[in-house]
């Protein structure tokens, strides 16, 4: 990239007006004691980077790769799920108005990130080059046929959803699971296994007391998934990846390890939740991690057959020196290697208020609207029983506990009625799998 952008070029990347407003607040040279741009082979600007003073001890690290084709790709160590985040926009804006000097290769983290991107690009090129022209042609044909099948399956799903709404929820079969399975099977035939799973799960909703509301919510999310697939070119890279994963275009672990972004960090385990699926005869483990240095949030999603222990076996609250490989959606990972436990009795992580935790969740939903769980860390919360079992912060805001966690004996025993730090998995139905840090105690998980 040889030409400096204008401010309008920068703000055109903003995901929403609030991101622009937030970027302008931090787009001050004094907030960025370290900033610069890296030169490409042609002498032009290949990347812009900066370190912004935040509320914590460590600065937020933001960088933008301008050398690739298409829209620029960015990374930032802040917890925001908006892409690009306000820090990325701010450092680009400072560069656009001439407040970023260069060329300057910057600290090691900049080069490591750019090299990891280059390595993945080389791997993709090598893999493509290894294929014969005939094999590439066949692979392209297979991919086109898959897209056509999925498209026709989603067209049929759209008509089916309209039929359900037109008939009215009072006519929804509450005991006949075959009604839901039939549409699910059609989507399986259309190679849209992810969407098929969501449709099949609709049958279980009819047993809930608030099933009409939840059914309509799921109908809306399915309709949004259809729209996302049809408008994929207009979506951000990570939302597009989320859409394809939710539909069923999954990646094998080997592919993620080969082409995914590798990040080695001191990863703290925020929450671990195992869910048994009797019908599928397997256990799903959701392991939520947060990087101590990068600030990134990661989800390790694994499955175990009967009589097998789910992996990885990491303890909530502990910190591990681990390298993970990210899926294209930007938060799911597969664990590449673990180099040992760093701290089994680490101090509590920096926590949020309830309002801040919900804002982080909203940012995550803006990228992946079908996300039904996200980790939260709440600081200075008390356990309250009225009007329902909840965690209440100093502002009086509360998040309810999931029914599966009641009564919360561990939380009550560790806290003793005093404010504590709690990390947990937040879902629309309450907090799951809480880990609690009491006064002077190590992390305790129920």
UniProtKB/TrEMBL annotation:
Q: Name one GO molecular function term.
A: zinc ion binding
Please list the residue ranges annotated as the SWIM-type domain. Answer: 60-96
Lineage top rank: taxon: Bacteria
Matching InterPro entries: Znf_SWIM (IPR007527)
Basic and acidic residues compositional bias, start-end: 133-147
Q: Which UniProt keywords apply?
A: Metal-binding, Zinc, Zinc-finger
Q: What protein name applies here?
A: SWIM-type domain-containing protein
Q: Which organism is it from?
A: Lipingzhangella halophila
